[in-house]
Design a protein that fits this description.
- With 293 residues, the chain is an alpha/beta fold.
- It has a six-stranded parallel beta sheet.
- It has a single domain, classed as Metal-dependent hydrolases (TIM Barrel, Alpha-Beta Barrel).
- Helix 1 crosses helix 10 and helix 8 runs parallel beside helix 9.
- It is globular and about 75 Å long.
Length: 293
């Protein structure tokens, strides 16, 4: 049986640090909790293996306790994704999450699309255990400033769940655009997936740092496709309490989590145990209300 990396790394570090000669041995460190992956998917995307079985095998192999999922079938990319309506995609997410308690559902929103409405999503938050709303400005062709987002963000406020955004390179998905929406809903936690996909991450780090300093928004950063140095820079500048471990599972296929072993190892070496716990588990458990799940 493969030992999950977080635990294996901790054991290695503890074994490599004996007490000085003549002193009593140090007490063992308390065990670390299993990983929570704050960013995973179900659905279809041409060229990528996002099969549910692939995700579940990866969770088994890495020892991941929870993965926060959204359904890429809601992305409006003809020929690449299924481009289905809000009700169909979120019903499928509900079905999948019910089948595996490790999977934590987010509702995928399609603001401004024909037939889409916040009213369709409300029952998923109110009655069916969904823990947030996922927004993808690039795949669904909207700006965070669009009026069509307001009813969805009101749902996040009402049900005290996060607004989770793909954060990228385009004008509509960049961190500054999302920051403007976050400032209009200062009690709603906003999560910036990728902390700026395809960027040097500096803008997203600055946005999260400013929000924490000015207390005019609640902004979290997330680690999918982020290099170790940028992750550690984000934690140093914003604080470990504002950064989530997430991976965009299963973007990298059958051995998806292997890609993140260097990132986890670098974080474990650089961070205190308390801050490492926040990154891999505690922040996500609090944000997505997972303590009782």
């Amino acid at each position: 049986m493969r030992v999950p990396l977080a635990l294996a790394t901790l054991a290695t570090l503890a074994a490599a640090s004996p007490a000085p000669a003549g002193e009593p041995p140090l007490p063992p460190l308390p065990p670390l909790p299993p990983l929570i992956d704050a960013h995973a998917h179900i659905g279809r995307f041409a060229g990528f293996d996002l099969a549910l079985a692939t995700l579940q095998k990866n969770l088994d192999r890495q020892g991941v306790r929870h993965a926060v999922i959204s359904n890429l079938d809601g992305a409006a990319l003809p020929g690449v994704t299924a481009d289905l309506g809000e009700l169909a995609i979120n019903e499928e997410t509900a079905r999948v999450a019910k089948s595996d308690p490790r999977l934590v559902p987010l509702a995928w929103a399609r603001p401004g699309a024909p037939g889409a409405s916040a009213a369709l999503l409300e029952p998923f938050l109110r009655d069916r255990g969904f823990r947030g709303i996922k927004f993808h400005p690039d795949f669904n062709h909207f700006s965070p400033d669009d009026a069509a987002l307001v009813p969805y963000l009101e749902l996040c406020r009402r049900y005290r769940v996060p607004a989770v955004f793909h954060c990228g390179l385009s004008l509509r998905s960049r961190a500054r655009a999302i920051q403007r929406a976050a400032r209009r809903f200062p009690t709603v936690p906003f999560v910036l997936y990728h902390m700026g996909f395809g960027t040097d991450h500096e803008e997203a780090i600055a946005v999260a740092r400013e929000a924490k300093r000015d207390r005019d928004a609640i902004i979290f950063l997330e680690s999918a496709q982020v290099d170790p140095a940028s992750l550690l820079r984000a934690i140093a500048q914003v604080g470990a309490d504002r950064v989530l471990f997430g991976t965009d599972a299963t973007y990298f296929g059958r051995d998806h989590y292997a890609t993140y072993r260097p990132l986890l190892a670098a974080a474990r070496r650089a961070l205190t145990q308390e801050d490492y716990r926040r990154l891999i588990h505690d922040n996500a458990a609090l944000l997505f209300h997972l303590d009782g799940k």
